[in-house]
Write a structure and sequence with these properties.
two-stranded antiparallel sheet; alpha+beta; 283 residues; four-stranded mixed beta sheet; 49% helix
């Protein structure tokens, strides 16, 4: 088992909070977050949550906005999924993903903030925490693959139950919901591999690449696998951007000056429009 230094643990907690709005609750602490993931499996509680999200996003849950409520839920929930994967690949830590342990609260604009507990550490092959630059052995990588495969399968079951419930209430496509999550997971690994500030050491980069192969393994049983097109434009020299296969319908949120518009990864955008949007976001 990996033993973290205080700084390693503090860094992980800070990154999960700042990048994925996910907090870590102490083993003996009670949560102040209003909802549990298990609430999404109960019709009455689920409908209350989705209705509040619809109102916060300016969507009519009972009308044309209903499908958008469902697809946007999946896109929002993928942020927590990325927290689970990042804790594993960057900090060798498994987060608890049990329905009753994972909790969330709405943020007032339709998004969610999340909270869970640490489950246990995952051996990274060095025994020294995240800072050591020691190449993992083949035995360690094989064990890591088994552990991550098990986590991936458990997470798919978790998402499958919740997405089925949300889809039943909103009419959203489960396929589209899964694709929105898969896009964000693949974009997460693309960024992590490209950015030295994230992987920091060659050993960590090797582990991230190893983990990406497991999470994104091509299989009919793996909902995290998807084939995505990369954005290409002669004037774009920024980081790699993957285009979603399906629109998340965020453009239906708000109206007038408060309208959301298309996301920069939306398949509805042509190359020139996407490039102009990316340039504007860099200003």
């Amino acid at each position: 088992m990996v033993l973290y230094s205080g700084n390693d643990r503090e860094e992980m907690v800070a990154v999960l909070e700042s990048s994925f709005v996910t907090s870590i609750r102490g083993a003996d602490d009670s949560s102040t977050y209003v909802f549990a993931a298990s609430d999404l499996l109960h019709d009455e509680k689920r409908d209350l949550i989705l209705h509040q999200q619809a109102i916060q996003q300016g969507l009519d849950q009972g009308g044309t906005g209903s499908v958008a409520v469902g697809t946007l839920f999946a896109k929002r929930y993928s942020v927590w999924v990325m927290a689970v994967i990042s804790a594993c690949s960057l900090y060798d830590t498994l987060l608890n993903i049990e329905d009753d342990v994972v909790r969330f609260v709405l943020n007032g604009t339709g998004g969610m903030r999340y909270e869970t507990r640490l489950e246990r550490s995952l051996d990274n092959g060095s025994g020294l925490g995240i800072g050591a630059n020691v190449a993992p052995t083949s035995e360690v990588l094989a064990q890591r693959r088994t552990e991550i495969s098990m986590l991936r399968d458990r997470l798919q079951l978790h998402l499958g139950r919740i997405f089925q419930s949300v889809a039943a209430a909103t009419g959203a496509s489960i396929r589209v919901m899964n694709e929105l999550v898969a896009h964000n997971v693949q974009q997460l690994f693309t960024r992590a591999i490209e950015d030295h500030a994230i992987w920091k050491t060659d050993k960590r980069l090797e582990l991230i690449k190893h983990d990406a192969h497991v999470w994104l393994e091509e299989s009919t049983d793996n909902t995290f696998f998807t084939r995505l097109q990369r954005f290409e434009h002669p004037e774009w020299h920024g980081p790699q951007l993957l285009i979603r296969r399906y629109c998340c319908l965020a453009y239906q949120v708000g109206s007038g000056s408060s309208a959301h518009g298309y996301c920069n990864t939306c398949p509805k955008l042509d190359s020139e429009s996407r490039w102009r949007m990316l340039l504007k976001s860099d200003d």
